[in-house]
Amino acid sequence: MKIINALLLFISLTTLSSCSDYLDVVPDNIPTIDHAFNNRVNAEKYLFTCYSYLPNPVDPNANEALLGGYESWIAPEGWWYFDNSNNLYAWKLARDGQNSNDPLLNSWDGGNGAGNLFIAIRDCNIFLENIDKPVDLEEYEKVRWVSEVKFLKAYYHFYLLRKYGPIPIVDENLPVSSTPEEVRVYREPVDDVVKYIADLLDDCLEDLPDDIQNQTQEMGRITKSAALALKAKALTLCASPIFNGNPFYTNIKDNKGRNLFSTSYDPAKWTVAAEAIKQAIDFAESHGAGLYYYQGFDPISDSTRIKLNVRGAVTERWNKEILWGSTKNDNFLQQVAAVRLQNAPASAPVISMMSPTIQVAERFYSNHGVPIEEDKTWDYANRYKTGIVSQEERYYLKEGYETANLHMKREPRFYASLSFDGCIIYGNGVVGDQDYSKLNYAQMKKGQTGGMTAAEKYSASGYLPKKLVGVESVINGSNWTSKRYSFPVIRLADLYLMYAEALNESKSTPDNDVYFWIDEVRKRAGLEGVKESWTKYSTNSSKVNTKEGMREIIHRERMIELSFEGEPYWDLLRWKEAESEFKKPITGWNVKGENTTEYYEVKVLTQPQFSIKNYLFPIKQNSLDVNPNLIQNFGWGTSN
């Protein structure tokens, strides 16, 4: 029997109108199920097929969270160079290009930059139904593989949930003998989907490895820490404003009359989430996980060491903070994030086009660990004017250089995360910072090495995400050598801040537990604790004493700590803050300016459009036509 006869595909989730339509597109050379599972080697290949559907987090052309959330922008006249297939789907999403006729980043049906995750789930089910067949497969291997595939199945449901809200639960594939009525599946209520994901993760825990022992061949495969962390994230999403009593969705019902979203706020969901997050943290730490601290022996200043703490948490391959990392090749991501340090021809592989905005630069704290607009010692009103860098900041900025006041007296994460005019670029073949004359620095004005030298391949804003470039990656004229890293899908700092959030939401007023977890992250970044910082320096010192004030602080802390890793996009959606954040004008410096006066003018790059409907992705209209039991997401009509 051919695989398609056992795929047990539910047709209602595709754009096809009948079983025969689907059969018509199946190649004749598809192997049989018996062949796919006739021995251990082939079964392992099928296991890796289940892994192969994982969305690529390091592809800025396809990852909705890298370019779709306005953290970074692209120079319009050069975007073809950034993506010469002209399919920069995530940027199209940010440019209000989403629609229901042919959705961007369509994880439901597949297309426009995304794979069909229901096919991924289908193949996971095929694996689970047939893994007993290989006679040469050891039992200990089988139970591990089964648990890995259950995790992947849970993750694919989670990814769809995060994008679409209510989704069909595909616990088992439908047989090909199913009637038309049986294949017209329903979207299930959000709470039911979350429970299914959590139960599936609980079910796979026992047989997942605590750690990866064969690190040469198996890094990136699933461990208990990854499963516990994913469960924590799913329960936190369920407790968040997007799904916890959201009035936007109160009256969204299917044709059975079921509410697909919770109709009232339930504070107990935050308690449940907090318990799951703490369990994930405790297990990970008991098995060697911890916040990353740079352990190199280079003769470096404390300032540089703190920057390497922050940068290395992302770019130090398989460091102990990464609970689950990607094995995808991040070379292109580094190319679009790196700043050119020497003159290079237009054909040079360093593309330098992923452009963080001024809004992102302003999001980072002052050197006192509080927002720049709140720091009573920081000259917020004159932030766009320029000044001369003092010796005190020489490991962050080029001493004596004239740059924006916005770039001075900022927290270490600002300098670890962003490249900009006048900033020090540690690394690039330089070991140690004691010989200050050897340190590279960015020059971003038009005609300078890091600035606009042609009609493409330049930062549209004057910023680049330094945090995404490995310290050991090297730019030398037209030559580029990158050191691959394991992009963090989930890292421990994410859980720390998520735990602080869940604790704060589950209490009437913040306490020391709330402060502790956020302060652990701040300490690694060279900052004092929140209470100390706000008491000493903030014009709103009482903010740390209220639930609402700490909510604002924790949200901003996550936006800073997890910048350029994708989480800010999903966070703003789950907090229901995107409708305000995503409507702000996108601004940058005048990158066509050739001198300091011209360059340091704030330019509006675009005025984003965002409406309530954009909190969830649309389902393709054709899928709704095929299956009348599916309903469209809020705000997406047939004409959208």
TrEMBL record:
Residues 85-233 form the SusD-like N-terminal domain. Residues 321-636 form the RagB/SusD domain. Its main location: membrane. Residues 1-20 form the signal peptide. It is found in: Cell outer membrane. InterPro entries: SusD-like_N (IPR033985), SusD_RagB_dom (IPR012944), TPR-like_helical_dom_sf (IPR011990). SUPFAM superfamilies: TPR-like. The keyword Signal applies. Keywords: Cell outer membrane, Membrane, Signal. Pfam families: SusD-like_3, SusD_RagB. Belongs to the SusD family. This is RagB/SusD family nutrient uptake outer membrane protein. It comes from Parabacteroides faecis.
